[in-house]
Each structure stands twice: as structure tokens, then as C-alpha cells.
Amino acid sequence: MALRSVTPALPIGWGGDVRPHTLIGHRDTVNTSLTVDFLLEDVSSTALVGVRAAKLISTHGALLQIGNSSWALFPDISLRGRPTATGPLPAPIHPGEWHTVRMDANGSALSIWLDGVAVSGTIPPLSPGSAGHALLGCGGFGEFVQFDNFALASQFTACPAADTLNPNPHQPLQIVQCASEVGLHAGSGFLLSAPTGGPGSISLKSDPTLCFTTTAPSPGLDDKDAGWPVTLETCAPPGSPSQTWQWVFDAVCPQNKRNSKIINPSSGRCLDMGPSFYTLGGLGLTNPPGSGNTTLGDFPNEGASGIIGASMLALPCPGEGQSSSQNFFYDSNSGEIMNQGSVTCVGVCTAVNR
To answer: Which pTM does this prediction carry?
Structure first.
């Protein structure tokens, strides 16, 4: 029994022309050791294996293509992508033979072995903070590869919502995994006093004396791109400007023009996932508010990485078509506040482990 690629021709795709592949494991995997046996069925076939593969459609990561007598490292899954590094294999690969490839990602170091022998050539370092799935595939359509004996040892970023019923005041709100991934936790359940659109407060379900609060980090701060921290503080009397929020729900919202957001009316700022939201797989590709760059970061796919555990901010609301870092949906049943662009939730963490 083996896993075999079965993609004879390029389909009509919705997400661009990409190499045939499958993603395995957790999107927040950081340090990884991947080992797998592969067999090329003919001389034109190439195997594709990868680590820290982030995002579902325009996947970025360290993607290794192996065939004949050479290897090539690609930074993304595009069919038209160019390799960032190439080199010779320790020995040629012939069709019908089983071989074993191993990839280790440890911090910024990437190591590659074929049949227990390290490949030669310059392997570029990995970007700090990058994370993502393991990946298996082939170099193109009409190429047939078999895989067997897949093994993955990994360590991933974890920021579960805190189970404690009484977080300390001044606790920053953070990006946590949603209940669909880790189960519902006390630290990610909230109450909106006016969930249908009017101004009100947002308090912790498990401790309603703690409310969402945002204020300028220093008096007189007027830098429009400077983020204001969002923390849990002891609830003030209703109507307190720093603790008044309004959920503006947009039920009809075309892609890239989502207007469902949570606003602090007194400051004109919206709840925002913060700068880490714009980092695609830790590759340093950024699109901060006000940059005018709409190529990257506007609408991350489900599986965007590099954000778990990051602190929430209050940033200016750009208006219609804002980045989906400010696009939130409130589930009144669970009390979760979910970012629809990345399918991650708002909560408090006890710790962030890598």
C-alpha cells in the first residue's frame, strides 16, 4: 500500500496554477523532522516534499523538489515559481526505485538528506517565526510519484485559551485557536451587552467584571498607524469611552469587502489582529494598514500562520473594503469572537509554547 499521485492533467483551478500537493499536520508547526520514502514512476517525474507550508491556496514554505540527479528548493507552490537554491543529489535516482528523503526544520536551519546522506549545495535559512504544514506532492501534472512510510516529528506554536475563570486585570487580549480546533475554553467566551449592533460592553463570560478596554499607550498619541493595546480591565460604569464597543455586522459581504467589525466609537478604532496577521507564514511579506499595498495580506486563506499568541490591537477603521484583519463574527451561543479571514479567535492565553 502506498500513497500515489493521480493528477494527469492541469485542471481549471480557482486559486492559481499550483503544483499537485497535499498538506499534512498542524498549520502552526514550527520545528519539524519529516521522513518519507518515495518512488518515481518514470524519468519525467519529480517528488515534492515540504515543511512549514503555510496557507491553503498560495502555499509558502520550504518545498523540496527531487528528480533524476538534482534537488531544487522552492519558496511557494506556484507552477511558475523559481527555485531559491539547487544542488546535486548524492546519487542519481532511477524510476522504480524506492528512496528515503528527510527534511529537518529547526529554528532558521533547514537540513536535507537522501538515503541518509546530506545533500550538497547552499541551503538558504528559514525565516524566523515561520510555521506551517508538512507537504507531499509532485513537481507538475502528469508526473506520478508514490509515497510510503511517512513519519513526522513536530513542535508547533500553541496558545490555548486560558481555562482559568479569573484572569488578572491588565491581561492582553490575544489570538487563540478556536473551539473547533481545541474545544471551548473559558478564556475565549465573551458577552456582548448589545450584540445586535448598538454600543455596549464586551465582558468575559466566566468573569463578567472584566471588560474589553482600549486606550492610547501614551497621552496625546495621534499616530494613525500606531496600535492601541486591547486588554481585559475591571469594568467601569456603562458608557465608559474606553470600554464601549459596537459590533457592526454585515450579512452580505463580497470577498475582500467584508465590513463586519467591532468598533470603539470614541476613538474610531477597530479591533484588529495586529501586524502579525499580515505576515504570511513568517516570510516577512507585510501589508500594514495605510501602506497602500493590497497585493498581500488583504484576505489571508484559512490556515494563515504566524499569529497564534499575538496581542490584539485597536487600529483605525479603513472603511469599506478594510483588511480582513478587522473582520470579526460573534457567536452568541459559544461567546467566541472569530476572525473570518484566518479562522482564529480572540481570547486570553496562559502561555505561548513553541
So the answer is: 0.64
